[in-house]
Design goal:
This protein is mainly beta. It is built from 11 helices and 45 strands. It has one domain: Maltoporin, Chain A (Beta Barrel), CATH 2.40.170. The two termini are 37 Å apart.
């Protein structure tokens, strides 16, 4: 046992847990209001509950914000969980991707400080919000109602992450934390793959062409699972803020954050289930386990220079390095290997799959605000983002256990059954926005702007497949030690296995075998927009605008599906009008009406014809997919009883032309692609939100925050349209089914929070918050070939957090996560009933932390 790690883990667990935020006094923004020549000055915390509600009440646009104070009380450590605290939002199980109003990743957009940022994973459009720490932010803005300042490629919402600009007294704070997941710590033997290290800093490189060509099997990492001692999560971070006066009017403010955290997870259950309607399962691994280890190393520096009252410049740089190891051992049935033994009476398919992902994302931004004269203000914002995403040394081995003879052999002569895989995605992303605000008198403001973005993507993938040479039954394989078969000695002997790629054998076709699969993409966005705000009266304000978006994309590819290569050229122009109307009945009641047109483009990997394989499913891009157009309308009532309180009700609707869906295509397994599945789709919904003080007297406050969303969705399913527009893949929709719900939309979502705030002494506080969330059933993928839809079943989560702050600068917290520990279940909803495709529990967890600020 590694006693050094054990002692560190025990120290973390007994003294610490989840991270703490800066004290309220240290995160302030100056606020001025002139009344008849008298200036009232004060400080207000931008992420505070009262300020969040005040901004929402006064804004012309329909906005929702989740502030740092609320997140701190709930013990929320990352942005993906933070967004789910907003009305109508849900987090997709197993990822950091967010569904908003029933619309998933491709329908949403993400910005940091108003500028778009790339995804850290080629499978998604948006950055994984779980890798962004809430310690670095002031608030999260959820823009569900479109306005022309935003890029038009959204139909759900834009998530804007606003990082801290520090203006308080200088401080420095250290946070030390630890937590455990009971699934992980109760596992007697915890395993991960060989190669990656504890901090996630080690980069695994693909073996060189010359090494493989000259010596063959030259992989330096083992196929044998490595046992891990003490799978206990840990976290260490620091943040600081300071400022300096420069000259008579200038002020330089600096905020910094740095941190490392890791987490161990363990799942056990069912996975990979795929069923025919008549013959039973195509495959199902009913005895499966997954070990998962993740790391996050983050650094942020935000420098704000207030030159004078009319000029301000801000620079921020954010580096995020994440890794994820997932080791899965899957045991069950797969008809590709032994289709006559569904009950596994003699033969059992065994799969070992180890995946290692690393992501390096750098986000650099430079922003300026300049008041040139009393009516004219210029705002510019420039960004450069760099992404390096890799899957180095993904390993897969498949054997079949003969229980009668008590030995294992390789499952198939298909070389792809046993392989090592390497890929890399490099992206350079340049983005900018320039707009001018001009006031005409007291009642009119005109905004004129330009947005531009250029992004180049370069993806390469190489898979080394191992062709088994001996006949089945003439050799023995130890599934716990594949190195005894796959090694340089056996390869050079020539009688055990050959190494091939999808281009050919490395021995006999070296000139082509080492050429990787690839696709490259260049995207150019240009947009111009104009907005007019007009105040008809003290009660009625209107905002009307229009945006012109032009999107040009070129994709060049050469993949397993298309070894001769190909090219995709896309050129779309969209005119996107929008309006926002606000009527204030009085200081406490607002009525809002908004309408807009937007669009939704398929993602890069939804278009590029590259197949990405996983245990549950494989995904294949479709070059023939094209954008959907969305028409949106919102009607909202807001009531602000007190400064910390809000009650609102919203009705909304969306009409979608040519909706895009994830759809199962013709295959034995759950292979999915992406298509415009019908002519139209629609969404109707209701949202309700309550933020209310139940009891507030003296130093005790009992409060609640509740929200709920009801969705009614429908889309056309048109087989003739699908066949006519998609010539590359064979798809047969289920007979008699011409309509279905939108893929990804849950009918009902709810969040309920109950909090107790207690103060004592001079500056001592205690917060205790219980948080409950519910997500109803939703379609993961539309079924075809008489197979039912893949449906994620409803589940609930319950969390609890207690945080104590002392006036001395010391803080403590105790958290409980996923306390009711429900099953996550995905089923194939066939006519004969629901058949389980995936089922497991995430496991409950507890954490503790300590922080010190000085």
């Amino acid at each position: 046992m590694n006693f050094r790690k054990l002692s560190i883990a025990v120290l973390f667990l007994t003294t610490s847990g989840t991270l703490f935020y800066a004290q309220e006094k240290n995160d302030t923004v100056k606020k001025e209001k002139k009344i008849e020549g008298v200036i009232i000055q004060g400080t207000t915390k931008k992420g505070g509950e009262a300020n969040i509600i005040s901004v929402q009440r006064k804004s012309v646009e329909v906005i929702e914000r989740v502030g740092s104070v609320q997140l701190e009380k709930q013990g929320v450590g990352d942005v993906s969980v933070a967004v789910t605290k907003a009305t109508g939002s849900q987090k997709q199980e197993g990822s950091g991707q967010i569904f908003i109003r029933g619309l998933g990743d491709r329908n949403n957009s993400t910005t940091i400080n108003g500028l778009q940022v790339p995804s850290n994973d080629p499978l998604y459009k948006n950055i994984d919000l779980s890798i962004i720490k809430t310690d670095m932010i002031d608030f999260i803005g959820l823009e569900k109602v479109y306005n022309p300042k935003l890029w038009g490629d959204m139909s759900g919402a834009n998530v804007d992450i606003v990082t801290k600009v520090y203006t308080g007294k200088p401080y420095f704070k250290v946070n030390l934390g630890s937590s455990v997941n009971f699934n992980s710590v109760q596992k007697n033997n915890y395993f991960l793959q060989d190669g990656p290290n504890f901090f996630g800093s080690k980069i695994l490189e693909k073996p060189s062409k010359n090494a493989v060509l000259n010596r063959g099997y030259v992989f330096t990492t083992s196929l044998k699972d490595q046992e891990i001692n003490n799978p206990i999560n840990s976290a260490l971070s620091f943040d600081f803020g300071t400022n300096f006066k420069i000259g008579e009017q200038g002020k330089l403010s600096i905020f910094g954050y740095g941190g490392f955290d890791n987490s161990y997870d363990y799942f056990q259950g069912i996975t990979g289930g795929s069923f025919d309607t008549t013959t039973g399962p195509n495959k199902i691994y009913d005895n499966s386990e997954e070990f998962k280890y993740s790391t996050n190393t983050t650094g942020l520096i935000n420098v704000n220079y207030r030159i004078n009252s009319k000029n301000n410049i801000n620079f921020s740089s954010n580096y995020i390095h994440t890794t994820e190891q997932k080791l899965g051992n899957y045991s069950g049935y797969n008809r590709d290997y032994y289709d006559n033994d569904v009950s596994q009476e003699r033969y059992v398919t065994q799969i070992r799959r180890a995946t290692y992902k690393t992501n390096d994302l750098i986000v650099n931004q430079l922003k300026g605000e300049h008041t040139l004269s009393e009516p004219l203000k210029i705002i510019w914002n420039l960004g450069y983002n760099r992404l390096d995403s890799r899957r180095p040394d993904r390993q897969q081995n498949i054997t079949v256990l003969d229980k009668l003879q008590n030995y294992s052999f390789f499952a198939s002569s298909n070389p792809g059954a046993n392989n090592r895989y390497y890929d890399r995605l490099l992206e350079n992303d340049f983005v900018g926005d320039l707009h001018a605000d001009y006031k005409l008198g007291e009642n009119t403001k005109i905004t004129l702007g330009y947005s531009g973005r250029y992004k180049d993507s370069d993806f390469k993938a190489t898979q080394y497949n191992f062709r088994i040479l001996p006949a089945q039954g003439t050799y023995y394989v130890d599934p716990k030690n594949y190195d005894s078969f796959f090694n340089i000695g056996n390869y050079q002997m020539g009688g055990f296995f050959d190494i091939v790629t999808f281009r050919g054998d490395v021995k006999y076709n070296p000139e082509t075998a080492f050429v990787p699969q690839f696709f490259t993409s260049e995207i150019m966005n240009n947009a111009g927009y104009v907005n007019v705000d007009y105040k008809f009266s003290e009660k009625f304000t209107a905002q009307v605008g229009v945006r012109y978006d032009n999107l040009q994309q070129e994709i060049v590819y050469n993949t397993t599906l298309y070894p001769d290569g190909g090219k995709v050229n896309k050129d779309y122009s969209k005119i996107l009008p929008a309006f926002n109307l606000k009527y204030s009945l009085n200081d406490k009641h607002n009525f809002r009406l908004a309408g807009s047109k937007t669009y939704t483009t398929p993602l890069l990997l939804e278009v590029a014809p590259f197949e990405y394989e996983d245990i549950d499913e494989s995904t294949i891009g479709n070059p023939e997919a094209y954008p959907a157009d969305n028409y949106n309308v919102d009607l909202k009532w807001e009531w602000f009883p007190k400064k910390n309180e809000l009650i609102s009700l919203t009705a909304f609707g969306k009409y979608i032309q040519n909706p895009i869906s994830r759809i199962v295509i013709a295959s034995a397994s759950n292979i999915v692609s992406f298509m415009n599945i019908g002519d139209t789709g629609r969404v109707f919904g209701l949202e309700a939100e309550i933020r209310k003080d139940i009891y507030d007297s003296g130093k005790t406050r009992l409060y609640t925050f509740i929200n709920g969303t009801y969705l009614n969705t429908e889309q056309d399913l048109d087989e003739n349209k699908v066949r006519k527009e998609n010539t590359k893949y064979n798809v047969t929709l289920n007979k008699g089914v011409t309509k279905d719900k939108l893929q990804g939309a849950s009918e009902f979502l709810a969040n309920a929070n109950l909090g107790l705030e207690q103060k004592w002494g001079d500056k001592n506080t205690m917060d205790f918050v219980v948080s409950y969330s519910y997500i109803s059933d939703n379609i993961y993928a539309i079924g075809t070939q008489e197979k039912g839809n893949l449906v994620d079943k409803a589940f609930s989560t319950l969390d609890a957090t207690m945080k104590i702050k002392l006036g001395s600068g010391i803080g403590f917290s105790l958290t409980g996560r996923n306390l009711i520990n429900p099953y996550f279940t995905r089923v194939q909803d066939n006519k004969a009933g629901e058949l389980v495709s995936r089922k497991y529990k995430r496991g409950s967890g507890i954490g503790a932390s300590v922080s010190y600020e000085f």
